[in-house]
Structures are given as C-alpha cells and as structure tokens.
Amino acid sequence: MVGAIIGDTVGSRFEFNNLRSKEFEFLTADCFPTDDSIMTIALADAIMAWDDIGGREKHDYKTLSDISCVSMRKWGLKHPYAGYGSSFRQWLKNPKMGPYNSCGNGSAMRVSPVGWASSSLEECIAMSRAVTEVTHNHPDGIKGAEATAVQVFLARGGASLKNLEEYERKNYYPLEHDLAWLRKNYKWCSVCDGTCQSAFTCLYESTGFEDSIRNCIAVGGDCDTTGAICGAIAEAYWGVDDALRNEIFRFLDNDEKRVVLEFEKRYPKAVS
Fold first, then answer.
1. Residue 269: which of 223, 229, 236 has the closest Cα?
2. Domain containing 150 — which CATH number?
3. Domains held by the chain: number
C-alpha cells in the first residue's frame, strides 16, 4: 500500500503542472499526499476494522461496504482539502448520500489495500466491489477498481510483468498505446478507462519501482492518480527499498503512519 502513497505524493506537484520528463528530483518539500493517499489509508483502516469483527469469515461484504463509508467519511473530513472531486466532497459531507454513478479514477486510486488484504482472487474481486460501489457504482468505476486490485493481488503471487499484462488485456482493458505514444500524446483524464490504461502501461514498461513512477510523470495528465495506481502494483511486483519507505513516512502524520504500519504487519506480501 505504501507504493500507492509514494506514487501519489511524487505526482502531487505535477498534477496540474505536467513535466513530461523522467528527469526530476523524486521527493521534495513541494510534494504532499493528496486525496488518493487519504482514501487509500481510509480503506486500509476499514478492512482492518472489518476483519476485527469477523466480517471476512462470514463473507459479509455488505458490512465491509458500510464500514468503508464510515471510514472514508471520517478520514475525508479530517483532511477536507486533500483534493477531492466535487461529487465526492458532497458524499463526504452527507452521510445519507448514496452512490452517484461515477466512473472516475477515484475508485482505482484508493483500492490497493484490497489487493494486499485478499487471500484469493475471488475474494479480491468481491472486496473490491464492496469498497467501490458505495460511491463509484458505474460499471467503468467498478471495473477500474477491480482491475487495479487484481493486479496487486497477482503481483503479490509472483506473476511476471508479461503475465500481468496478458491477464489485464484479456479481462479488462485493451492497452491501445505504448509508453512512447503516451509520452507524446496522452492528455489529462479523470476517468478509470484512460487513467488505468496509462498507469498499467507505465508499470509494464518499467525497470524498477522508481522507474515506474518516473514513467507516470513523463506521461503527464492526472499523474498523482496514475502514480498511485501504478505505484500500488509496482510495490507488489518490484518492492520498495527501505530508504524510500522511510522517506515517504516523513510526509504522513502519526495517525496515517499508524494505519499503514499496522496494515503492513497484518497483511504481508506473500500470498499463502
């Protein structure tokens, strides 16, 4: 999950000021965790709470949905200026508001804890839907979140980049363009379809974790979200070195660090 936070934080200073280059200082004082990181932490917190009450053993995904709503609102209202979209801001402030048929990339940016916590592909898909459809109940919103969570899960299980790409193409998106095309032509996009395809391509053409995030910045567009999606899967595939892990914790407050560390302790990388 820390990979999503790193990708988001690195991309934060380039979201509305695209660089379109791989040559830049990776983390600076101008970087900050955005709504992508806050909602990722919120879902990690929700999954742990769900496990604490035995929801997983009962396959009680309705309760996971309910807890996710409470957790996202709690964390969102604690960080009200993190960069939420207008519809999601309304949802945060109104506990009676239900899903609003969104196909936005917010569903994919926050879902990576599902890929880490799930113990089977079937469970991963069910958990992804449970935490997603409370806001993003449009089929494309559900699809983007599921595709991202499944890629994290498969990478944890040892899938190669080639196998990840083959599975993704077969089950989710066609990946119409390579990285070279994206660097020249990709435009800012806030929906799952375009953002996920860009993020996945940045991973598949990477040579390491940091390189995958640099690819996201070079592509431009909504690069904090592209970075969060790509970074989540890249962590599961490439891993994150200790120095970079320690550096990203400097950008998190004590409550955020507590959730991340507890989540990592509960849900190790290997799929049993």
1. 236
2. 1.10.4080.10
3. 1
- In whole angstroms, give the CA distance from residue 178 to residue 119: 32
Return d(Cα 210, Cα 196) in angstroms, integer.
18
**Cβ atoms 29, 250 nearer than 8 A:** no
Q: How many CB atoms lie under 10 A from the CB of residue 139?
A: 11
Domain of 209, in residue numbers:
2-22+33-263
Confidence of residue 270 (pLDDT cuts 50, 70, 90): low
Inside any domain, residue 113: yes
Domain assignment present for residue 268? The answer is: no
Q: What is d(CA 155, CA 236) in angstroms, rounded to the nearest whole number?
A: 5
d(CA 130, CA 171): 19
**Is 192 contained in some domain?**
yes
For the segment 112-159, what is each residue's pLDDT rounded down to a tens digit? 999 999 999 999 999 999 999 999 999 999 999 999 999 999 999 999
The answer to pTM > 0.90 is yes
**Can you read off the two tokens belonging to residue 177?**
């363009």
